[in-house]
Design goal:
homodimer, about 130 residues, Arc Repressor Mutant, subunit A, 2 domains, 3-stranded antiparallel beta sheet, 6 helices, elongated, DNA-binding
Chain lengths: ~130, ~130
DNA sequence: TTTTATGTTCTACACATGTAGTTATAAGCT
DNA sequence: AGCTTATAACTACATGTGTAGAACATAAAA
């Protein structure tokens, strides 16, 4: 898969959250948040289709219903890896450090991370034993 | 500060790691890893100078010695925030989840993360008490 | 001192991306 | 059936980025 741009990812989120959508559907959601032309949104959808991230599912009248054709988890993982490579030269630990220096993280967020971590270490421990 | 591209970041890393460098110095390091023309590298340096990320420190002969003019920590933090915004819609917890799903993380990495976390929680606890 | 090599500057170009106008077309209303 | 409007399809354009050649200048070598 080719990589997705910021705007393309933004659009994919709607499909991942809500399932099948039309051009006007997506336009509506984005126009709620900021000023954008319908054709701009439609261009992004067209490009996503070209990249194989969306496919035409069906249509009613002249309106096309699109559906996500790539998975959320693997897409995010790919982007994360690419990010770590470019910003931290592939060193995950540098990401950890930067992440933990972020003052915008709440105690709650930290607790959440801890719980994930404990779980993961447990699983991994089991498996490698 | 304008944002830095992948290539620009790659170059900044050398300055952050090694201090002052000349065009040929940087070229050498990158050419070690992949095929690139000297002028390509020099263009990136020029753009970094234009963006205020590098400044001319001194020169000997026709050769210019550059020095980093932006900080590593804050730059990475900015990039991290931007990344979380675009890929995870600003939700750090989604990053945590994706991160912890990465099978390429070793038990050691996880231990490292845990130690950072414990430290951070301790500090924050103190402060907010 | 003439030649050669090396570094800087300037210019260029293809591709990705965000942005949107124009044109065509088909639905739906009157 | 004709008019209006919503949607799709196509085209366009500025900017950022990776890429590098060409022209120029000067240090180093012969």
């Amino acid at each position: 898969m080719q990589e997705l741009s910021t705007f393309e990812l933004e659009v994919m989120h709607f499909f991942w959250e809500e399932g099948d959508l039309t051009g006007p559907d997506v336009y509506q959601r984005i126009a709620d948040q900021r000023d954008v032309a319908y054709t701009t949104v439609k261009t992004i959808i067209d490009r996503l289709e070209g990249k194989g991230a969306l496919k035409r599912h069906r249509s009613y009248g002249r309106t096309i219903v699109y559906r996500a054709a790539i998975q959320r988890g693997s897409t995010k993982m790919r982007h994360l890896r690419r990010f770590i490579d470019s910003v931290f030269r592939g060193d995950s630990r540098e990401l950890f450090t930067t992440l933990l220096h972020d003052d915008q993280l709440s105690l709650d967020d930290l607790g959440y991370l801890e719980s994930l971590l404990v779980q993961k270490r447990h699983d991994k421990d089991e498996k490698e034993r």
